[in-house]
Structure to design on (154 residues):
């Protein structure tokens, strides 16, 4: 699974991929259906310039992505997946200066469908900011893990 962690680190490396490349993300762990990362938001992640709280869209993006990575880490052979259901409960605002802990786990063994749950917390205090769950279809058309060739997917 070290290849998987390496893939995540490359995916989240600064400057490497769209929005992920602009984030200061640290991978804490990734294995067997569980992924943990820390993120330090910046001013651009604010809901409004005059209200420096993290935009809920960023929290949704992070949870959807980490749910997917948890599913991929649980598969014997990594393959393409697709989000088919996503529910996020936003419990409170968080200031952009707070470092966040984002964690996800697979709660139902992946077959055709995989089910996940996770949360976003303030890393320093453990205060719960958002929680959610997602369902994913496994083995969809699209790029396989580690490739950008859509024809390579099973």
């Amino acid at each position: 699974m070290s290849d998987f962690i390496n893939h995540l680190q490359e995916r989240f490396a600064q400057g490497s991929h769209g929005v992920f490349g602009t984030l200061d993300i640290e991978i804490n762990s990734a294995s067997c259906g569980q992924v943990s990362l820390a993120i330090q938001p910046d001013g651009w992640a604010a809901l409004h310039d005059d209200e420096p709280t993290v935009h809920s869209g960023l929290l949704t993006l992070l949870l959807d992505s980490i749910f997917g990575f948890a599913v991929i880490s649980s598969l014997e052979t990594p393959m393409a997946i697709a989000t088919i259901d996503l529910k996020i409960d936003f419990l409170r605002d968080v200031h952009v200066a707070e470092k966040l802990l984002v964690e996800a786990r697979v709660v139902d063994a992946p077959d055709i469908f995989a089910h996940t749950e996770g949360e976003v917390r303030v890393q320093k205090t453990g205060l719960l900011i958002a929680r959610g769950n997602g369902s994913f279809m496994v083995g969809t058309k699209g790029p396989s893990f580690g490739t950008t060739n859509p024809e390579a997917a099973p």
User: Anything to note?
Assistant: The beta strands are 24-31, 34-40, 46-48, 51-54, 81-90, 100-108, 113-122, 128-138.
